[in-house]
Amino acid sequence: MLKSKISCILVLLTILSMNGQGQWLPKPILIDEHRSLPCDDLMSRWDAFYMELNDNPNSTGFIVIANRAEKRRESVLRQLWIERYTRYRGFDLSRIKIVRTLSDADLRISYWRVPTGASEPTVSVDASYEIPRTLKPFLFGSSDFPDMPECSEIDDGRILARFLTANPSSRANLVFRARSIQRAGKEAAEVVSNLVKQYGVSRSRIRVFLRRDRSQPDQYPMSEYWFLP
User: Fold this and answer.
1) Among 155, 163, 174, 154, which residue's Cα sits nearest to residue 201?
2) Could you tell me the CA-to-CA distances from 223 to 96, 131, 173, 190, 218 in Å, in that order?
3) How does pLDDT run across 169-204, given as a tens digit for each residue?
4) Considering the entire predicted model, what is its pTM?
């Protein structure tokens, strides 16, 4: 009888011990959260997040970009900027996971530190590049800020190509301004070649406009990508 009671007590203690351990499992920690910010403010936030991860080498980063469906382009660009700046700063990008999700509100970016053994925050991931066809043509990106390349809306055409591919009825109007038509044409030829040859966009879906603008520095031709849903 005594042995039976002792066995029951040991089993009960084991169960309580297991429950206690479960209650102490690490949890993800929200480090920062913000809405749309200027580029220099964004870079300050990113640097602070890298420092947090450096101070906790056993943790990983988890970034959630939440936005409306009609603003997927904005979310994708923010992800591009974070990845671009992370490489520029020499931080290990493999320690950071970036996901997009849909929201009923405007852009909000959340930065989490995930300790070893903790689960990532639960997020319904949105990997789509679809744009509602009800939207009017809009400026997809422009090269307005050559002094802040980390936050440039222009790349080699990869992001624009993904949206064109995901929206088969869409088209792109590309505008290039430079001090000479020849310089603008050279820039246009490179971008169109990337879109068509490297990313598989049909040339018939792309219109190119060349403009002479003597106010533009020759080394920085102005580019505008217009998206027509």
Assistant:
1) 163
2) 31, 22, 11, 12, 13
3) 999 999 999 989 999 999 999 999 999 999 999 999
4) 0.83
User: What's the half-sphere exposure (Cβ side, CA atoms, 13 Å) at 84?
Assistant: 17
d(CA 119, CA 84): 26
Whole-number Å distance between alpha carbons of 143 and 46: 22
Pairing outcome for strands 206-212 and 171-178: parallel
Domains and CATH numbers, the chain: 29-114 (3.30.1330.60), 138-228 (3.30.1330.60)
Question: Could you tell me the two tokens for 75?
Answer: 């979310």
13 pLDDT tier (thresholds 50, 70, 90)? low
Q: Are the C-beta atoms of residues 159 and 194 closer than 8 Å to each other?
A: no
Task: Enter the tokens of residue 219.
Answer: 């080394």
Residue 111, both tokens: 């930065």
Q: For residue 134, which of 69, 204, 202 has the smallest C-alpha distance?
A: 69
What string of DSSP letters covers the chain? -HHHHHHHHHHHHHHHHHHHHHHT----EEEEEESS--HHHHHHHHHHHHHHHHT-TT-EEEEEEEE-GGGHHHHHHHHHHHHHHHHHHT--GGGEEEEEEE-SSS-EEEEEEE-TTPPPPP--B-------TTSPPEEEEE---TT-GGG-S--SSHHHHHHHHHSTT-EEEEEEEESSHHHHHHHHHHHHHIIIIIT---GGGEEEEEEE-TTS-TTS-EEEEEEE-
